[in-house]
Amino acid sequence: LTQLFRPLDMLGMVYRTIRQGLIDMAAMFKLMDEPQEVADAPGAPALVVRRPAVTFDNVVFGYEPDRTILHGLSLEIPAGSKVAIVGPSGAGKSTIARLLFRFYDPQAGRILIDGQDILGVTQISLRKALGIVPQDSVLFNDTIGYNIAYGRDGAGLAEIEAAARGAALGPLIERLPQGFETEVGERGLKLSGGEKQRVAIARTLVKNPPILLLDEATSALDTRTEQDILATLNAVSQDRTTISIAHRLSTIADADAIFVLDQGRLAESGTHAALLRRDGVYAEMWARQAAEKDELGVAAE
Ligand code: ATP
């Protein structure tokens, strides 16, 4: 990874946004094995986001020519809404996020943000509009302040402090004699999974993107921490369009809409209550997860 990014460092600040996008994505999707080249269209304008609606319009996509993963997928995500994408492993949930970031381009169909086809805008402007709170956050061997400020070039201390508060990192930072100057990472203070997650949330708050992607982030955390983090994420999602990629349904039951993906097709969509009434794929997933929870509960006693 370092090898790949060193030349970009030399090219200066303008590339930081791209680089950050790559690091976020690498963390989330472990994509670095085979990053694909997508190029800006000549003379492409910047994406201008006034109302951060996201539309997938009949998107067809496969990583390889002979294996289609998304079969004409259409999703309508209104500006400011909180939606979740669920479905079995391999259904294509992460692929949707990769396409949104333009790590790949669809073979057919369009992806629009606020009415603008993402193929036609600069990648820098696209990635500025998108924030990610990944599953495994990457921390740099630097200060906690640097790690938070990494969300945006030129972030000042006041912004960093506000972001730390927003991510509920205040109590941790107060405990540290050197505060934001505390070194973290391999050579410094080791942060817990939940604390790392909060640094990622703070980073996102500094970046302040209109569209937020949440990779279900809580698998390695205990229940109490998980609940705390979910509450923080809910607060951070205010006034943004939020797309959660979820494995556990209990965390997304209050979403404005849930899209249920099955083998690259939209099987169902609706609110939690509507999907339960429908008694289809989602209801079955819900019942299965409830049963698993019961079993775990019994096993724990
Ligand atoms: P999970 O819940 O397990 O994370 P998912 O719904 O996010 O799964 P995707 O990661 O989007 O699923 O993958 C959808 C399909 O695309 C899978 O069959 C997967 O094997 C395939 N796939 C993913 N990445 C690549 C890749 N880089 N090259 C080829 N095929 C890929």
Automatic annotation (TrEMBL):
Signal sequence segment: none
Annotated ranges, domain ABC transporter: 54-288
Compartmental location: Cell membrane
Protein name (record): ABC transporter ATP-binding protein/permease
Organism of provenance: Novosphingobium piscinae
Residues of the full protein shown: 309 to 609 of 609
